[in-house]
Design brief:
The protein is of the alpha/beta class. It is built from 4 helices and 7 strands; from the N terminus they run αβαβββββαβα.
Length: 137
């Protein structure tokens, strides 16, 4: 192997990209439970194995259940391709309407992404039909 081949990035050198999709009222503890293990893994590995972006279900700032307001880097209507999507909502998933978010998740799934949910977001995914035909625990 020559020097050039050794310096070429491999698939394992490319960080796995997570999108955390947040809805108003999301619980900060659930949100942090997604990001902190990824951050800690990067520190322990001494390299960026994971990266994450924050996506809002709609444009604009999103207020967590504790009153902290965050400004997502993207909203669902314009979010980029990612490897994993983790949906984070709190206490209101049965009533959420987010067509842009559902469309983006469907497109991401067709592109090979995987989805997950924290707090009560699994109910949102189920109501949107995104879990049909899949086991969910």
């Amino acid at each position: 192997m020559n020097n050039r081949q050794r310096n070429q990035p491999t698939a394992s050198d490319t960080p796995l990209t997570f999108a955390i999709l947040v809805f108003p009222g999301f619980p900060m503890m659930a949100f942090s439970s997604v990001i902190e293990p990824l951050r800690a893994a990067n520190v322990l590995a001494k390299k960026n194995c994971y990266r994450w972006i924050i996506v809002g279900a709609a444009e604009g700032p999103v207020e967590a259940s504790n009153g902290v307001v965050i400004q997502p880097g993207f909203f669902a209507g314009e979010a980029p391709k990612v490897d994993r999507i983790v949906v984070c909502s709190g206490g209101n998933a049965d009533h959420l309407v987010a067509d842009d978010a559902v469309s983006w998740i469907r497109k991401s799934l067709r592109g090979g992404a995987h989805i997950g949910a924290v707090a009560d977001a699994a109910f949102f995914l189920a109501r949107a039909g995104l879990l049909d035909g899949h086991a969910c625990t």
